[in-house]
Structure formats: structure tokens, C-alpha cells
């Protein structure tokens, strides 16, 4: 594995660890620019005075003078776009209090080559979603959002069942209803995989979001994904494209869950698209995320994209009844939808002018 051009700054008071980690990053990930420090008081100087922009910062937790938490706060303040990794031999205790720690990723100490490869995979996935400068700063200042450990990350990629079964009934109920709603096997597979991902996330979010809110959110997004798929098929959209529409809409539930988590944690409401990074890390295919971002931000849409955008805009919109009626009417078609959306857009422009 070779990750994209990365400048890495590593801090540890143990020179042997610095040497070992530097070599592991070079050999396993192809990183060719690593700067090592064994004095925490120098971090501020390197970040503010160096001509190098560090993409990745890795620090030990237990150190003299300044500990890892204090150093991470310095990095977050002076270089918020830098991905911050906290390394410790007591990760279980630290992750219990992770909401107060300004790290993006946790790394066990001692680390294995699999841990380094997992870090590389996470960095690759982070790089697949492209953000503007201001968005990257917002992400850097955001509280910690849980990410999968090496085993969970691997299980999600191969579709292995999770040990959490709190959403089993939801899976059974959805699959039972799907048979009568004429969804394809691909849609059922996407639904099952997403429930698996939510099961893996639930343990880490249950004390902030809660299992009932997660179930309600999933049901809401599933219903819109299903009716959008059926509307697309009824309007002679190719099945493969209709399945992509289904996947784009349903997978957005992860962004919703992360937004609820951050709202409970920080009392701030983040833009849904800002949370695409975490959706990709948790297993949503990057091309689905990029397609959704293009649909939400583009002014030049195909008819198929109109269906997707209409549904996405209804997910958090109290004015969704008209779109719902169009989707569920046997006589409505894509032309009806585009006519309504054009009229609604003109109405909004008139209202803005009056105000």
C-alpha cells in the first residue's frame, strides 16, 4: 500500500518507538517524509514555523511536561486540517472518554503492522472525499466521531455479521416488507449491509443518540429510498440506475446519525455533507458519496438525478407531502416531478425577493 503524498510529524519521548513507527510508516504505507520529535514543547514551533504542511500527526499519550491530550489541543488549534492520531497502551480507557479528546484516530501501543495498514486504509478513505478549505477546517475542529477499529473495519468490508444484534428485528421487518414493495435483490443487499454498519456503530453512539432514534431514522430513510426506487422503475429508469438512487438515499442515514451524535455532544448542527467523510470510513462506497454530492450541488441534473435530489431534499423537509404524492401516484411521471420542482423553485425566489 502507498498512500498519497503525506507529511507526517510523530511525537514520542521514546526514541526507539519513534524509529520503529517511522520505519513502519515508510515500509507499510510508502510514506517518505517523516519528521520525529521527542520533545512535546517543540510541536508548536514545528507547526507554526516549518514550511512543511503536515497532513498527519501521531503522538504518544503518556509523556513528561505535556501529555498527548494537551499536545493534540495545540495541533487542533494551529493546524486543524492535520489528521490527529493518539497512540496509547491503554486505548480502552481513553476511548471511554474519547468525546473530550481531540483525536481523529486511535492507535494501539505497541502497534502491529496490521494496525499501521489499518491506519493507511483509513487515510486512503478520508482522501476519497474532497472538501473545500473551510470545510476541512470545520472537520478539524469537530469533536471526535467514532471510527471502526481494525477488526470491525475488515468485517464491514467483507459483510461479516456483527456481534451486536440490537437491530435484528429491524432487519427482519424491512426484508419482510421489501418483498411486497418490489425491491430488487441488490436493494435488499444494500439494506442488509447498511443495517450491519449501523449495528457496528450503535455500541459507540448508544449513550448519545440511542437505539430508538437510530431505528426511526433508518425507517424514514428506507421508506424514501424504496419509494424513489419504485418511482424510478415505473418511469422506465434502468434497474441498475434505480438501485444506485436507492443506495444514495438510504446510505445518507449514516450522515443523519452522525449529525445527531454531534448535536447531542456539542449542541451544534453540522451540515450533512460535511459528514460524508465518516460515511466512507464506515463502509459507504466513495462513488455513491461523490455522486450524491454532485447531485446536491450541481445545477445541471439529469432526469434520474432529479428523482434523487427531490427525495434527498424531502428527508429533512416538512414540505415533503407534495413530493410524496407525486412519487406514490400511479399517474405521475418525471415530467410531473420536474414541473413541480421548477415551480417550487420560482416560488422560493419570489418569497426571497419579497423578504
Structural account:
- By secondary structure, the chain is α/β, with parallel strands linked by helices.
- It has 16 helices and five strands.
- Strands 2-1-3-4-5 form a five-stranded parallel β-sheet, with helices on both faces.
- Helix 1 crosses helix 5, helix 9 runs parallel beside helix 11 and helix 14 crosses helix 16.
- The longest helix is centred in the last third of the chain and has 28 residues.
- The chain is elongated.
- 35% of the residues are buried.
- The C terminus is likely disordered.
SSE topology sketch:
Elements: E1 7-11, H1 15-29, E2 33-37, H2 43-49, E3 56-60, H3 68-78, E4 83-88, H4 91-96, E5 105-108, H5 113-127, H6 133-141, H7 150-158, H8 168-180, H9 185-205, H10 211-234, H11 239-266, H12 276-281, H13 286-297, H14 303-314, H15 321-328, H16 334-354
Parallel strand pairs: 1-2, 1-3, 3-4, 4-5
Helix pairs in contact: 1-5, 2-3, 8-9, 9-10, 9-11, 10-11, 10-14, 11-13, 11-14, 14-16
Give the strand tally. 5
Give the termini distance in whole angstroms: 55 Å
Structural class: alpha/beta
Give the low-pLDDT segments: 349-355
Secondary-structure element string: EHEHEHEHEHHHHHHHHHHHH
Distinct helical segment count: 16
Strand content: 5-15%
The residue-averaged pLDDT reads: 89
- Helical content class: 55-70%
**Cross-sheet strand order for the largest sheet:** 2-1-3-4-5
The global form is: elongated
